[in-house]
Automatic annotation (TrEMBL):
<dbReference type="InterPro" id="IPR000086">
    <property type="entry name" value="NUDIX_hydrolase_dom"/>
</dbReference>
<comment type="similarity">
    <text>Belongs to the Nudix hydrolase family.</text>
</comment>
<dbReference type="Pfam" id="PF00293">
    <property type="entry name" value="NUDIX"/>
</dbReference>
<dbReference type="InterPro" id="IPR020084">
    <property type="entry name" value="NUDIX_hydrolase_CS"/>
</dbReference>
<feature type="domain" description="Nudix hydrolase">
    <location>
        <begin position="40"/>
        <end position="170"/>
    </location>
</feature>
<keyword id="KW-0378">Hydrolase</keyword>
<dbReference type="InterPro" id="IPR015797">
    <property type="entry name" value="NUDIX_hydrolase-like_dom_sf"/>
</dbReference>
<protein>
    <submittedName>
        <fullName>NUDIX hydrolase</fullName>
        <ecNumber>3.6.-.-</ecNumber>
    </submittedName>
</protein>
<dbReference type="GO" id="GO:0016787">
    <property type="term" value="F:hydrolase activity"/>
</dbReference>
<dbReference type="InterPro" id="IPR020476">
    <property type="entry name" value="Nudix_hydrolase"/>
</dbReference>
Length: 181
């Protein structure tokens, strides 16, 4: 198996949220794809945050593209110069006000959609969390904090009683395995 060859590349759109690139690619069999679109995004982080009382800290927010409200684990994009660990601690603090005196455990690092996106998501587990401050939300965020029993969340997902997304479900099951549940 061989890699594709990029014959040309140009940006169609660039913004603070990401860039859209159009490449001309030659496949190993000689076939040329004239317009192969690649989304360039910053890496993301997310975390399953569990309180000292064994509740999972979730965030509920409106997601425009799906036109609905979703309950998710705290998450966000990396800022320039941050490590994954610094990024998730910042995101959890900003979105929820929660923190922990115990270092986050990295559960994995995954490409989001390697067919069309360049970014990865790093998933963490944070335990013994407590609320240390108020939320510090951006102008584009309106977030409600939701606390649930760790096992209750799984039931809500399995019974389709909650809107969530793939990264949250993946993070939950990685955390569940880490915790030996």
């Amino acid at each position: 198996m061989k890699k594709w060859i990029t014959q040309s590349s140009e940006y169609v759109y660039q913004s603070n949220f990401g860039h859209l690139r159009k490449d001309r690619c030659e496949l190993p069999n000689g076939f040329v794809i004239q317009d192969y679109y690649v989304n360039e995004y910053a890496d993301w982080v997310n975390a399953v945050v569990i309180t000292k009382e064994q509740q999972i800290v979730l965030v509920k927010q409106y997601r425009y593209a799906a036109d609905d409200f979703f309950v998710e684990v705290p998450a966000g994009k990396m800022e320039q110069g941050e490590t994954f660990e610094q990024g998730i601690l910042r995101e959890v603090r900003e979105e929820t006000g929660y923190t922990s005196d115990i270092q986050p455990v990295k559960l994995g690092e995954f490409f989001v959609n390697p067919a069309t996106q360049t970014n990865k998501i790093a998933t963490f587990l944070i335990v013994d969390a407590y609320q240390a401050s108020d939320q510090q939300l951006d102008n584009t965020e309106e977030i409600e904090i939701v606390l649930l029993n760790f096992d209750e969340f799984e039931q809500l997902v399995q019974n389709n009683q909650i809107n969530t997304q793939l990264f949250t479900v993946n993070a939950y099951y990685l955390a569940r395995r880490q915790l030996g549940k």
